[in-house]
């Protein structure tokens, strides 16, 4: 079997260049991807997963991942939590819509709580733990948007109106709150 | 040049079957697509476009379309309105997040108003018109979610809290409000 071979070209009837197969002309229409995830509470503690896979292996994150075909965003958020932490969720509402245009990603993040107080690491997690708000390992979070989601969830918990948050003003997820630059591939 | 030829198979290290090229093994990772659009007001009237393309050629819709790579949802909604109706928008807020899992679509619909009172049909529109609320051609709207968005925008205008709407209870965009079934391909 040969290797895939694509080149940029503008298909007939289109107004943008796309990746096209050099052999058969197949057009790869690439569109932004949707990440679905949740800030999961049990009583006053928050569920985090330590990543077993790259990017950012060993860092803590909320359960989240790419939405799959033929599911709703809420179903996707429940599936990701089930896969990464073996938990069942009650989803409460949409917490935030974040946008990371650099990597063509839109993130739909929900507020949720554990349906039952049981959890364990799935194949993509090294550990799963419940953290009291003042115990969250802020220095070891995986992505800028995990910081945003935890901060926005805390604001929601403190009584902010139930309007979804968006990216903090001017932020595009290129930098961690401590000033550390996100390396390409770390998204 | 040969024709594209794909078959369903499960790639190494994956847990789902995907479309794979029979010649080079290229894996087509298909994910849900994001539609970005807006209910656009000018004074108390609402901007609608009559579609010049299939599906639903000749029917009225709000400016909306597939989000492209490297843009934010708001930029995408402004681009679609510019392409379809030659308008510049002020986007006010997120009106609704709809989900159509049958066709793996998530729709982010914004409330917007015209930055200037000028508009004209772009290449994908036969006509563009401002309609007073009681003149909207409800019998000739293109898609179920156009009905939803116009109803939800009216509720927002009437003072509903600024929390994004979701699909009407139990609805998955398979039927127009009059009971007409949406044909496959009409989405």
UniProtKB/TrEMBL annotation, chains A, B:
Which UniProt keywords are given for this protein, alphabetically ordered? Hydrolase
The record, for Pfam families, names: NUDIX (PF00293), Zn_ribbon_Nudix (PF14803)
Has UniProt tagged this entry with the keyword Phosphoprotein? no
The source's superkingdom equals: Bacteria
Give one GO molecular function term: hydrolase activity
Cofactor entry: Mg(2+)
Region of interest (Disordered), ranges? 158-187
* UniProt cross-references to InterPro entries, sorted A to Z: NUDIX_hydrolase-like_dom_sf, NUDIX_hydrolase_CS, NUDIX_hydrolase_dom, Nudix_N
Query: Could you tell me which residue ranges the Nudix hydrolase domain spans?
Result: 31-154
Q: Which Gene3D superfamilies match?
A: 2.20.70.10, Nucleoside Triphosphate Pyrophosphohydrolase
Q: What is this protein called?
A: NUDIX hydrolase
Write down the species. Answer: Fulvimarina uroteuthidis
